[in-house]
Here is the input.
Amino acid sequence: MSHKAAPESRSVTTLSQRLLAPGDGLRQWWSTLSRPMKWIFGVIGFTLLALLPLYTPGFIDTPGISFGGTMAAFVMVAIIAIGLNVVVGQAGLLDLGYVGFYAVGAYTVALITSPDSPWNKMGPTGFFSKDWAWLSCVPLAMAVTALAGLILGIPTLRLRGDYLAIVTLGFGEIIRLLADNLSDITNGSRGLNEIAYPRLGETEKLPNGVFSSGNSMGHANYGTWWFWLGLLLIVGLLLLVGNLERSRVGRAWVAIREDEDAAEVMGVNTFRFKLWAFVIGAAIGGLSGALYAGQVQYVAPTNFNIINSMLFLVAVVLGGQGNKLGVIFGAFIIVYLPNRLLGVHLLGVNLGDLKYLFFGLALVVLMIFRPQGLFPVRQQLLAYGKSARKLLGSADDSKAAA
Amino acid sequence: MIQECVEQFACQAANINFNVDGLLNGFWQLTVDGLSWGAIYALVAVGYTLVFGVLRLINFAHSEIFMLGMFGAYFCLDMILGFSPSGNAYNKGVTLTILYLGIAMLFAMLVSGTAAVGLEFIAYRPLRRRNARSLTFLITAIGMSFVLQEFVHFILPHIIKGYGGSNAQQPIILVQPKTQFTIFSASVSNVTLVVIVAALVLALLTDIAINRTKFGRGIRAVAQDSTTATLMGVSRERIIITTFLIGGLLAGAAALLYTLKVPQGIIYSGGFLLGIKAFSAAVLGGIGNLRGALLGGLLLGVMENYGQAVFGTQWRDVVAFVLLVLVLLIRPTGILGESLGKARA
Here is the structure.
């Protein structure tokens, strides 16, 4: 979003800006790596991350709440952040109602598999078997959410900037109000219970498998299992989104984000690519919603308040819009910090309560001093990047020789 | 299976009423009540519309300015005028009540006006100096909205005992709503009357200030073309502060009127929904257009009431949002068009 401001802020590097830019060195190092090295470091990094709930160092642990559960929440928000990043960071469409897609995904799974729902298709007589219901609902949830994105996108994407933000905000709120008010279907504010989840590793001790909430003891509790599942999905999503980024679609998104009129003039069908961004972002949000519904096994309208939408946006803005690894870090901050501070008291105030205050302040400060986020994306040549760099490198060499 | 689902949906969505009789029977009553809601929306909407006209910025935190105004009004009634919270109305007589209301309104306006100008200084001015993009402004506004809400939610109770926190304030009821007269079979209560009259007076004053005074001309000039206006000797920064101030003052006044209507609605999150509706009102009338905001506010209040009568109370908020989405789709420039700057000099 503020890529224009980036060179300016680099020239006037004050101390405050350097403090707010821990990511710059890291990113420079990352971008010098060759692709196989990136893979190796990526695999190591993800493995270490995956092992974190099993061997939790004391200073990272969350004393107030299960660390596995925290990490499970983290991967869900991370998936959301990746999806929202496609919409906000890559295509530059400010979506304030993203929680609506999350809700659609969660409610799709809930409506099909919860016994409280009139549309329940699970069980001995239903279409879905107990063992496979959740997994088969995931693509369904993504498809329904993508459809919701399409339905919302077609009329609204002709609007620009601020207007789009407000319309999507209205959409997010309408979804929640529908879930609240259509009580014959969604059970209203009481929510839907006993949603399906993967039945894996069913033993005598854990009759419902490792993903059930019965598995709540020790380090490898059900939160940790959901975290591992989410982590796998994140890897898949990163590959997918990364490839999209480097494709024609990704280049079109960047063009639209930077200057929509110019992109239109250069022959980019802006509406179509914006719609693609919206639909892909929505489907990813739906995936996260399906994960959420499976893990918590309960959905209710209050989980999908508009303030969550803002929180997701904070994750993306904090991490660095457009940078898919950055937004995962943003998601980690958003989920981890409040859980870490849970029960920590300062001057009689529970710091865990103050998360929105902190995040609000962080947004304001960040927008003033570093609008591009902690790990800003750096524009690079998206196509033929490597050969172009090589060419430039050899040009530099010859200049140095001369 | 899809066919089946659709049929099921049609049956099960039966709690969406379609009660046209209810609308026709209560038409005038609904209109009067809607107008009193609309008057409040209109006053808040002016804050959105003026700031948008001058800065092209959706001041998302304006709803929190309104919320602070509610707390200001409450503080004034409770601490300064000495009305302790109680379940019963005070009913002090017409002159005295209006006097108290006037004092509380001035205090609420002071609080909201100060907050709005403070917001401008702390959050938006640094961004303007850096030539930030409009989305940066919007995200800052969202951040400030969080900060102000959570300040009242968690910090205020530690500063003033009994204020803020997770629960709404104990209501202070100055007057019991009582029917004063009927018009077209609609009964008009004293509260409705005060709200509508006060809002009309304020709206008229604002309209005069914007359209007839030198300052107003400055605001319109900056809205039309800020560079040229600056070259003509208008101080842009001063105009921006004035704009925020006017918006804040009106939000404070609206906050008092709201607490008069809904005494139990003073809560940290109480501004959010009303803010979005007021913004919808501003868009409905044509954002950036002062008279549009006033018209849009009244219209939204009335439409919301009609929608509520037809579809049921629980759909009230949905009506407002659907209306917002529809307006943006059909006529994004609103009923009167975006034209704060294009009005005549």
In short: Chain A has a mean pLDDT of 80. Chain A has one domain: 33-340. Residues 13 and 311 of chain A are 29 Å apart (CA to CA).
